[in-house]
Structures are given as C-alpha cells and as structure tokens.
Amino acid sequence: MTDTASASAPVNKRGRVIFASLVGTSIEFYDFYIYATAAVLVFPKLFFPNADPTTQLLGSFAVFGVAFIARPLGSIIFGHLGDRIGRKGTLIGSLLTMGVATFLIGCLPTAATPGWVVLAPLCLVILRFCQGIGLGGEWSGAALLATENAPEGKRAIYGTFPQLGAPIGFILANIFFIIMSQSLTPEAFASWGWRVPFLASAVLVLLGLYVRLQLVESPAFQRVQAQGAVRRVPLGDVVTTHLRPLILGTFNMLATYVLFYLLTTFVLSFGTAAPDAQVPGLGYPRSQFLAMMIVGVVFFGAFVLVAGPLAERFGRRRALLVITAGIAVFGALWVPMFGGGFVGVMAVLIIGFSLMGLTYGPMGALLPEMFPTNVRYTGSAVSYNLASILGAAVAPFIALFLWRSAGGSPVLVGLYLSGAAVITMVSLFLTRETRDQAYETNVG
Fold first, then answer.
1. Alpha helix ranges (H) inside 111-194
2. Transmembrane ranges (predicted)?
3. Which residue, among 149, 140, 146, has the nearest Cα to 159 in the 3D structure?
4. Total number of domains constituting the chain
5. What is the pLDDT of residue 10?
6. How far is residue 348's CA from residue 334's CA, in Å, rounded to a whole number?
7. Over 224-293, what HEC string results?
C-alpha cells in the first residue's frame, strides 16, 4: 500500500524545485540584508536621534538582534506546521510573514515624525520581530524542498541551491542601496530613499509566491503521511528523542553564523568608520565599501556551489572540519591583512566570503540529514535558528565591545571568530557522517 501510494504520488520537476528553493531564500535574505545595511547606514540616526553615535549604533544593532531572538520561535511555529501539514503550505506562510513585515518597515514613520519618537522604534522592533518569525521557518523549508526532491547521491548538491539565496539576496540588497545612495542627495536618501528597497521587496515576494504555489508536496512527506507517521507534537519528539543532533546541529552552525555576521555587519562598520572617530576604522566611503563587499560576496556564491560536490565526495563532516579549521586560521590572521591597504582589505573580504561559501553550502544537506523525516522540519529549523542566537544575534555586540576594548583594532574580533571555529570543530568531531544514510524512508 505504501509503495503504491508513493509511486503514484505527484512529484516536482527538478528545475522547479531548484528555482523555488533558490528564489525563496533569495527573497528572504534580500529582506534581511536590507535591514542589516540600513541598521548600519541610516537607522541609528532615524530611529535613535537623541543618543550619541555609539549608543545610536548599539540601539540599531539591538533591533537587528531582535529578529534572531524571534527566529527560534518561528522555527517552532513553522517547524510544527511543516511536520504536521506539509512543506509547501508552510513555506508559503513563512514567506508571506517576512515579506509583509519588510514592506511595512518601508512605510514606517521615523522618530522625527511628531508623536512617533517612542512609537517609531517600538514599531520597528515589532516588525523586526515578525521578520525573524518568518525567517525562522523559511530556511529549513527551502532546504527540505531541495533535498527531499534531490536525486540519489546529490542531496548536498541540491542543498546548495537554497544556500545560494544568501549571496544573491546580499548582492541585490546592497546594489539597491548603492544605486539609491548614489542617485540621491544624503538628505533625500535619509528622508525617503532608504524606504525604496523595503517597498520593492513586494515584487520579489509575489514572484516567490507564484513559484511556490506551483509545487506539490515532497515525496518524503507524502510517504510519512501514507505510513501514518506524522507526529502530533514534533518539537516534543525532537527534544525527547533527538536532543543530541539538536545540540550538535546548533554548534555545527556556530562558526558559520559568527563569520557571516562579522563579515556583513562588523566589517561594514569597521570599514566605513573614520580613522579619527571615537572608535577608529578604515575610513572608506560607504558606497565604495559596499561595492568591495559585493565583490567578496560573488566569491561567497561561487564557493557555495563548490561546497556541494566537495561534501558529496568527501562527506559533510570531513569537508566541514577542514573548512572550519581554515576559519580559525583566518580569524587569527585577518589583522595584518586589514593593514595591507586596499589589497589587504579585499583579501579579507574575498578569503572570508570564500570560506563562508564553503562552510554554508553543506549545511543545506547536513542539518536536515541529522533528523528523521517526520521531525526533520522542526529539528533542522530549531538547530539552525538556535545557532542564530549564539552565533549571530550577539556577534555585533561582542564585536563592537572587543573593537572598542582594543582601541579600534580588530585583533580581538578575529580571535573571537577563531574561538567560535574551535567550538564548531569539536561539535563536528562528535557528529556522525550523514552522507550515506537513508533519507526519504528515514522515519523516527
């Protein structure tokens, strides 16, 4: 009965699977990056106008971190739905949640609006929280969409397609900000220009919805339904019977997250801060440094694609152990590279983002593979988003504190990255290889 039902179940075309998993995470990360960029460039003054520059930046980063606090809650909500009702409907819901919140940020009055001095930052926090809820369910669903529809022996390769959404979203968001900041006066950009990337996200969300509405449920979840193996409370099963992979999955992502948000938030702050500022930086103009970062992110995308075949050939665990060791070395050596002028800074960005692609790419396969099908959405989503708190939510604060403590030198920030990499290496060492295990028929 089960085999017959499974054989006759409709399946998704490979091209549609690849595009649907890629477009969703591209939109997701576009939404997230436009906030990350605005959090550094314009939000400190627009929403925290009465504070000194350092406090403004801390306030903006605090709101940035709210989404990471919300993400585990989103992973529980959408993970429960994904394991109970299916991947397709859950993916549509997560995309809408994040897309609507992003659009509304573009409509939000600033603190300079009469009567909004308190309401403006409060509403920003609420909308940022909603962004985090949506993001909490988006990544895991996209990863499952790709890997549960992948041909045999190609899960890691298919799992890299949703990972490509990160560099694509970054490039789209920052090109948008560069165009707006270069086309407008600083006054016009601060007044209304920053809103355009947020409002334009509505077009991308509609595209993502159209593609995802064409999908059918994944064969793996159809098999779970046919077997009557759907869990009533997936989170309870994960915590009680799959706690070890939940913890290891969280720490397997730690170095990835720390590297990612140091490169996209701290490095932007450090690169654009004036050399004579209270906390000195490199003094690059914003638009120039964003363009330099975009070059680095191209390497991010290229090495995401390289990571999939590497993880298929050598295994997820072995490949990631070597890559994470490289991250530890990078953190210890990036200070002399920063001191090498333009070439040195570009070396930091290119090497850092290349390592980011190599470590991020296999995660689309590794984390889902650590859990059985009927709790896979919940398990992979919760571990991924718990890592976001440990590795990303606190990263800007820790980096800013260490940056100030070292008198404007990034040396302690680099050692912080190296320390996170060592922790991840220990976690990976304790994780068993998942490349050759059963996947579609794996039901806990």
1. 119-147, 155-163, 165-183, 186-188
2. 17-36, 56-79, 91-112, 118-145, 157-180, 192-213, 254-274, 289-307, 319-336, 342-361, 382-403, 409-430
3. 146
4. 1
5. 57
6. 6
7. HHHHCCCCCCHHHHHHHHCHHHHHHHHHHCHHHHHHHHHHHHHHHHHHHCCCCCCCCCCCCCHHHHHHHH
Range of the domain at 137: 2-430
CB 428 within 8 A of CB 327: no
Residue 282 sits in a domain whose CATH number is 1.20.1250.20
CB 229, CB 363: distance < 8 Å: no
Q: Please give the distance of CA 398 from its chain centroid, rounded to a whole number.
A: 19
Q: What is the mean pLDDT of residues 273-299?
A: 88
Please indicate, yes or no, if residue 14 is contained in any of the structural domains.
yes
Question: Does pLDDT of 4 surpass 60?
Answer: no
State the Cα–Cα distance between residues 226 and 187, nearest whole angstrom.
Answer: 60
Q: What is the C-alpha separation between 266 and 214, in angstroms, rounded?
A: 39
Q: Tell me how far apart the alpha carbons of residues 155 and 157 are, in angstroms, rounded to a whole number.
A: 5
439: in domain: no
Backbone angles phi, psi at 258, to 5 degrees: -60, -45
Is the pLDDT score of 3 beyond 50?
no
Torsion of CA 40, 42, 46, 48, to 10 degrees: 20
Angle between helices 243-252 and 411-430 (to 10 degrees): 150
Residue 228: count of CB within 10 angstroms of its CB: 7
In-domain check, residue 310: yes
Q: Flag whether pLDDT at 32 surpasses 90.
A: no
pLDDT, mean of residues 94-105:
90
Given this model, what pLDDT does residue 176 score? 83
Q: What separation in angstroms does the CA of 61 have from each of 54, 58, 189, 386?
A: 11, 5, 20, 18
Please check whether residue 82 lies inside any domain of the structure: yes
Question: Token pair of 195, please?
Answer: 């809103």
User: Are 268 and 293 within 8 A, CB to CB?
Assistant: yes
Residue 276: phi and psi, rounded to 5, are -105, 15
Rg, the chain, Cα only: 21
